[in-house]
Structure formats: C-alpha cells, structure tokens
Amino acid sequence: MASEVSAVRFSGYGVALFVGLFLFLPWVVGLSGINGQVPWLTAELWDYPGLSRVIGQSLTVGFTATTVSTVLASLIIYAEQRQPSRLWALTFTAPHLAFAVAFLWLFTPFGWIDRLLPGSWSWFEHQSLPTLTLLLISKETPFLVVLGRQQLRQLPFENWLLQARSLGASSWHSWWLVVLPAWLKSMRLLIIAVAVYSVGVVDIASVAGPMNPPLLGPLLVSWQQQFDATTVNLAAQGFWLLIALTMVMVAWVYVQEALVRKVCGRQLRRHRARQPRSRAQALLGVVGGLRWLLFIVSIASGLALFAMSFAEGWFYPALLPSEWSLQGGIAVVKDLAPQLLETLGVALLTATLVTLVLVWTREWQRAHSRELPDLVFIAALLIPQTALVLAWLHAGSVSYVISSETGAWWVTVYAHCWFSFAFAYLSYAPAERAETQDHLTVGRSLGFSYWRSWWYFKRPQLNGALMYAFLVSFLVSIAQYVPTLLLGQGYVSTLTTELVVLSSGAEWQAPAVAAMLLWLLALLAIIVLSNGIRRLHFSRDKKSS
Amino acid sequence: MKRIKLLAALLSIVLATLMSSTVSAQDRSQPTSVRFYAWAGSAEVNAYIQWASRELAESHAITLQHVKVADISEAVALVLANSAGESDAVDLLWINGENFAALKDADRLVGGLEDKVPNSRLIRRDLDWHVDFGTAVEGFELPWGIAQLQLIMHTKHVAPAQTVVTPQALLELAKRSPGRFSYPKPPSFHGTSWLKALAFQLTDDPAMLTQPAEPATIDTVLKPLWGYLDRLHPYLWHQGTEFPISAGRQRQLFNQGVLDNSVTFNPNEVRALQLQNKLAPDARSLSIGERALTNFHYLAIPRASRRQQAALEVINFLLSPRAQARKADPQGWADPSVIRLPQRDLDSPDPLVASHPEPHVSWNAVLERQWLARYQR
Questions:
Q1: First-to-final CA distance of chain B
Q2: ipTM field
Q3: Looking at beta carbons, which residues of chain B come within 8 Å of A505?
C-alpha cells in the first residue's frame, strides 16, 4: 500500500522544476558572481590596518557565542526535558537589532539601570566585543533551545535513559553520556548555522560591536558600499577571507562535537552510578535563574523600547524623560506605516511560499522514498549571508534584474524565501519525518487524490509543525538586513532597513519606534500561531508520555 | 471561521503589498515621480523632505520619494554600478566631497545646473561654493546648505563667553577629564572633517592643504597633527583605542552622559536641537580654532535619470526663498540658507564664524589612510 502511495504522481514536472530552481538557482548565480580575487599572501588585504584584530575578533565572537550558546542550550534542554518552559519564546522572537538597541540603552555605563543603581552596571561597554558576544549568546541560546527541543523529540531518548538506568547508571550520567552526544549530532547543522552567523554577523555588530577595527562582517559591507578601486579590491578579497573564517567555524563545530564525544566516552568507561543529586539540583537552579534572568532582561528591553518611543528630552542623569509625548511616538508610527506594511507583506508572502515549497519538498521525498540529506536544503546557512549576497550582486543577471523596482522587489522576496527556507526546513522536517504515511494511505483508499488526502488526513497531524515553519520563516524574513539592503537597491524598505537608517543619526525616538514595531510584529506572529504550536507540543508530549 | 477571516486578512495584506509594488512600478513610468536619495538619520531632515514632498505635489504635481540611506555612498555606488544607460533608480542626490568627486570623475552627473535652475541666481555671492572639497563644481551640483564644523561641549568645560576652543585647550581639558572626550572615527564624514580641521590649526603652512597632496610634503604637513593626536589619545574615551562610529553615535553618547563632547556640521544645530528637546540643555557649540572648517552640501542629478526635468524642478523649489527659509527654521532642520533671506537678517545674526576652506580632496584619502595605519591596530 505504501508503494501505491509512493507511486502517486502528486505534481507535474512544472512544480518540480520550480522547486528545483528555487533551491538551486541561487547557487548557480552565486558561483557565476564569485570574484576570483583570492587574497594570496601578496594581496593588499593583508596590509589593511588592524586586519589581524579583525580576524581575531570575528573568530573570538564566533567561537565564544557558538560554544557558550551550545553549552547553555544543552543545560537548558536537560533541565527542561520534562517541562519545557515557554519563557524562552520572548527572547527567541525578539529581532536581533531591536533587542540590541534596548539592551544597550539599559545596561551600558550611564544607561538606565546605571542611573537607577549607579556604579553597578559598567560591564557592558558601548562598541565592545564582550557586549556583542553577550548579545549574541542571549539571542542564539533561545534559538538553539527552541529548535533543539524539536530535534530531541525525534530521538528515542527516554528509552535510552530507561535502558541506561536499568544498567545501573544514574539519570544524570545517562543523560550526559548517552543522550547529549546524540542530541549534539542531530543539532550539528543548527549549531553550524549559529557559528556561521556569529562569525560573519553584520547587523548587531554594527550597533554593539567594536569599531576600531570592526568585525569582518560590517567591514565587508562597508567596503562593498565604497567605490574606489582599492576598496573594491578589498571587498573582493574580504569575501574569501570570510569564507575561510566560516570554514574554520564549521571545523570548530565538528571539533566541539568530537570533544564532547571523547569526554563522554571516557566518563562512560569510568561509569559512576552514584546520583550526583546536588549537582543536578544546582544545575536546575542555575537554568531556572538563567531563564528568568533572560526573560526579565527581554521584558525590560521591550519596556525600554516602549518608553523611548514616547519620551522627549531624556538626558543623563535623569531617570525619566522631561516629558512624555504620545503624539510624537504616534507620528513616528504613522511615518513608519509604509515600512510596516512592506515588512508584513514581504514576510507573509515569504512565509506562505516557504511553507508551500517546504511541504512539497518533504512530500516529494516521502512519495519517492528518497530521503535527501538535510544539507541539500539548508546549505544556505553554511555560507555567510553577506558573502552570498555579494556574489549575487556581482552576477550580471542579478544586477540587471534588480535595476528595476519590480525586479528588485521580487529578487529581495526570493532571497528572503531562500534564507528562511533553510531555517523552516530544520524546524519542519523532523516533525514530518516522525509522521507515518498511513493517513495518506487511508485517504487514497477512500478515493481522494494525493493532495486532498494530504490536506484532510496528514495535514491535521502536522498543523503545529506547519505553523512553526510559517512562524520561523516570518521571523527570519522580518529580520533580514543585508539581502534587503543590497538586493532591494533602495526600492524595498522594511522596518529592519529603516531601523539601521534611522540609527545612523543621533535620534533615539524614531529608531526605538522602529525596533518596537519590529518586535511587536514578531510577538503578534507568535501569539497568532501559538495555538498551533501549543497543539504540536501537546500532541508530542502526549505521544512521548 | 475565525481562522478563515484571519487568513483572508493576512492574504489581503500580501495582496496590498504586491499591488502597492505594482502601482509604484507604474508610478515610475510617470515623469512626475522623483526618487531623491538622501541621508535619513535625522528626524528633522526627514520631516523637511516630507514637507517639500507635500509642497511639490501641490504646486508642481511632482511626487518626491525620499529614498532613505544610512550613508549616501550607497547611492553613489548604485549610480556608478549602472552601466545600462538610463535608469529609474536615482533621480536626485544629496551629496558633497568625495562622493561628488567620484561621480563627476566618472561623468555620471548632469552639467550646466546653474543655467537650468532659475533659482540658482539667488545663491549668496559671498559664499565660496564653487569648489567642493577641492573639486571644481562646474555646474554639476548646486549648493543646498552650509556646513561648518563645530564642537559641542557641556557648559561645565566652557567659560561663559567662550566661543572658540584651541587644540591645545582641548588637550588640557581631556587631561583634566580623562575618558570623557572623543571624536567620530575616520573615515566617517565627520571623523575625517575633524582631522582636516585640526590639520589646518596645527600645520605650519595651512596653504599646503589647499594644494593637491604631494608625497614629498605629506609627512611635513601632517607631522604636527599626528604628534598632537598621539598626545591626545591616551586621555580620550577608551584611551583612544575605540571611537564613536559616527557623529550621530557620538551625540547619542553625549546625551547619555558617556561623553562630554560631540561634533556638528550645522552651526544652528545646538540651539535648534535644544528647542526640540533633543540635546542636553547645558550643551554649547564652539569653533575649533578661530576659523572653522566650512563646506557646503549639494544637490546633483545623475545623467542616467529618466526624470531629469522633474529633478531640476525639485532643485529649483529647494532653492526658493520659501523652501530655504523653512530649512533654516530653528524649530525644524535649522540648516543655514544658501540664499539671502531678508526677514532672517533682521531676526538673527548669521550663525557662521570665520572660515577656512576645505583642503584639496586628495588630502581626504591621505588623512584617512594614515589615521587607519596609525590608530586602527
């Protein structure tokens, strides 16, 4: 019967061609746009002042953010294996830039908290590597936790724990020695995505990171926007440097995983049955504290953005602004209405298209019993976004298409879809894989076509996962900066690009309003879709219990 | 049912966006729409362009679209990258300095603007706007406003009648309040301007700076500047190892109490921002030395623009007494007018102080390159 379902032609060649093009065209175009100016040892890139620090800082941020986020996410996943907390969702949905703007206002020296409790909060300087790293860790940890839970659900970890306990191992040891290595392996691509993003980060590095010299991501974008021959060469050579740093980060993720396996293996051989209750309890306490700390920081950041949006005359050392102006904030909201509509429209279109392609891609694999490696679908995450977009820009075909408004708009949407697809695939594929095709078989036996069977019988089982994929695509789309800036060619203006533009001056109200709207949009999306997500959690929890 | 309604609402937003994209694409073909690329980091500047857009729509049937950028070099790169001839992307640019030089050198600008824009006759004759950062304007751009580099400082560092701070006095101030002063990082526009202003004050022969930078003289001319910065940096914010990335960021840090100084290129800005409650009430502006670095910001039209006639009409409007007076309004942008405004002469004195010219454009690259080599390590 299964083979009968497999044999069903559920789509024509047209759709296959479309999806194939959707997934692979950017690679072809990117390859055609790659500049061959590899920075050999004689290249002028090496003479750029501070380059060794640029590289050192980029790698430091990459290593630290990746490793600490992974460690924290592992601890949180362990501590919340039975009762997943929803508090992470607030930080998870916070767009990077919006979160950074509010965080800096609150926690830097002379910031709001410092005014409230003078002298206590001087740890997070403006334009500093530790501040940027902390911001990245704060954003990447919830990302790994939320998506890591989905990966964990696909592992029979409760059976493993049971077996390990029956062999005399404590649940603590069983978790760290048996489950963690497997979970880390299943998380490999996601962790690589975090590592690649961190080493090439542009948006929040431009707001919170060091600037003398900057990290490689912002430096590369600034070179790209210059036009003298020297800087054009630097941009071309910097592309390859960023690719090289990315490869180092990918290697690091493998090393990290191997180290964990080695340590766990050694521990397993020494195997101690004693239940380190105190250690487990302490860990639960730490995770609980961390959860609430991040939640409170996120709430405070949201409130700070809200306050800054309606404040006038807020100067050091005043704890409160000299006046509140609802009118001023509302006027900015009105000014930002076109960007809000454009952000929403592009994100909804992106999320809809991504979800459709996602479903088709998974069903094609299932129907043809051909499980392609995840790497095929998420490879976009393994290359720094800036490098890819620059390669596209240099391809003649892309620069021709984006020279018109309509062309620029659709190419930008395409880029949003392509980058969102990779994240959405990672969130949807595990849930879809866990579903059998029995529902489809039932539908087919009742005389429905493949897609009607899918709609009536399989889709209800996947509603939560579909909504999750939709949500993830939406969130990724609204936060896109580099593709919108460079491919949109000024024709596409979203809240994220507007936030960066408004932040280029000394204003605080307009950027705060833009950041607040961005965050509210993300929160609205998660609230609207939370019903479906909750259902997914509920049905999964019920199955696993 | 609720879900269907929600889905319908969401789809209608997508459709609305698609339609607005299509409508905009149609607008593009109409000659009345002008895409004006301009820096948008100031609410007052943005509000002024919105006002101009409304006025132009009413009086000239022109739709002025403000394409907001964080740095105008984004637009310059776009114009330079366009090799396809006519384009819809950029109709009007707010530029000066090296951006203008790059476009002029590449022959990407419409010339003869003085003849094509009637209101150019109103431009003040006492202003030396015909050379932009050492590059002859030659009709490829027209001045829109006047810029003069000044320091902003808290009153506590300034004597009541003080209007000038010399580089030496600034060094003494920095020594008395270590970590409280800084300047925007070159090669940002304000950062490089800061270097030029100091170079004029410190070099033995300022006239050398108005000539093209020659390898044989560069070291001699700039030696006093680097010596001064070497002495100043240990007393700056982060001991001179980190600098605010832009003048905007520095003003944020100033308002937040992190720094005691900032810079501005608008001599009216302190008063205007204080009126608007956007600058600390105890801020004062000071000239760096007796003469201030003075330049202009301009409007230019790319040759590739399909809507040159409409863009010319926009420039003509922006140089009209009404638009210039509005621009100089202290409740708004407060940018000094490039045309004589009779009523303003009566209301308030000219805010400009004695000026020295911009160094030749070739010094920009030299200053930026040497600064990066010395201090970005």
A1: 63
A2: 0.84
A3: 39-43, 248, 251
